[in-house]
Amino acid sequence: MTLARTRLAALATSILAVLLIAAGQPAMAAPTSGAKDAPLPAAFAKAAAEHDVPRDLLVALAYAETHLDGHNGEPSASGGYGMTHLVSNPTNHSLEKAAELTKLPVEQLKTDDAANILGGAAVLRSHADALGLDETARKDIGRWYQAVAKYSNASSPELARLYADAVYEQLGLGIDARGVQVKPQEVTADRGAYAKTRDLNAQAEVASPDYPPAAWVAANSGNYRVANRETDYNIDRVVIHVTQGSYAGTISWFQNPSANVSAHYVVKSSNGAITQMVRDKDVAWHAGNSTYNNRSIGIEHEGFVNDASWFTDAMYRASASLTRALCDKYGIPKTRTGIIGHNEVPGATHTDPGSHWNWTTYMNYVTGGGTPSWTTTVDNTTAGQFTASANWGTSAYSSQRHGADYRFADPVAASDPAWWSAAIPSAGTYRVEVWHPADPGYNSSTPYIVATSSGNQTVYVDQRSGGGAWRSIGTFTLNAGTYNVVGVSRWTSGTGLVIADAVRISRV
Questions:
Q1: All domains of the chain in start order, with CATH
Q2: Taking all residues of the chain, what is their mean pLDDT, rounded to a whole number?
Q3: 3-class SS string, 111-180
């Protein structure tokens, strides 16, 4: 497979400049004294150089796992530690593997941020070595995709792809957290065999049997009890949880027979995607109280209790829509009596959803309030608000399209953008969402341009997956007025057709 090269010359040069080992097994030096207090940018640069791992990829992996929060050495729900989520459980021993590779004590890998980042880099590099990535291949971020998928230790290829896609999505969106920055960039991910696995990001793949907007991935049969609710039990509660782990990792954990836990639904932080894992009629083991398990539906939300950055507006809205549907279906009161936190279950030892969960916002969305003060949707057929040159064709090929059709063009070394115009009512912060059909032949790194008050910002989206649904590309400060707000450029090193379908802009 021939891949377009990513425009990462500056990154490659910086890595080469500090490269300690040319090929073969990297050195396993312990962090210097005081490394625990070293700034995170330096810790990521050191780990990347020492293990010949692309620095931006290492940051994206850690961000997808923990939002760069080591959680003071406390484990995730699946037994993962630190920013890079080094795991120690019956089926995943990446923590012990990191200790073996780095010669660092397990306890240090759990609690020391710099050591943990070194450990994550070492484990990721070991997967690259097992896949045969040589020195040249290691300089192309796209070639690391399968190593990232292996790092997940997912229970199935489809979950490994979901995990790796989340990491690579961060490269396209960019990262600015805890003093660490990764600029949005074009990356063509070489999925290899994973390209043929089921895409859990694609809404139309396998729909939930109880809530069609969600995907369906069954939990392991040993992690819940088959029942016939509402015949044998009435459903009169929704219990809100926080996963203490990533979206893909939680889904994988619920498929692990050693977990002995599950929930009916899992909600993704970045865009509100939902996966159902236990049928509503069956009893998921989520509340730690058999009576409440029998009578309730559990909804897990990606993130960690002590980190508010996971609780996005997209997550609140998607989860609230699900909860509203469940309340309507089963006659559950749309109040804090019918909708409770895990910490409110009698005898609970868990604190989720925690103090950062905004119950006021959530309940407002559940009851139908809290709609954006202003929102507009612009399709490629909206009169007077979409412009594109004659180089853009028109197609109705995909059933995932928004409206009657969508536009497409070949990538070229010239911008030739298609633009959506909107009348922004006042200067402020707006959420921008895009809609596109997905297809293996569509572009792996589509540049969406947002005309912000401080200049154009570009976000890269892989249009091969995640189609047929609104997909948030971020929040931006926009000026008031009528102008071209969002565009799609053809200038990309990504492969495949560039698609322009619809955008939605909402005041937040």
A1: 40-193 (1.10.530.10), 215-367 (3.40.80.10), 374-507 (2.60.120.260)
A2: 90
A3: HCHHHHHHHHHHHHHHHHHHCCCCCCHHHCHHHHHHHHHHHCCCCCHHHHHHHHHHHHHHHHHCEEECCE
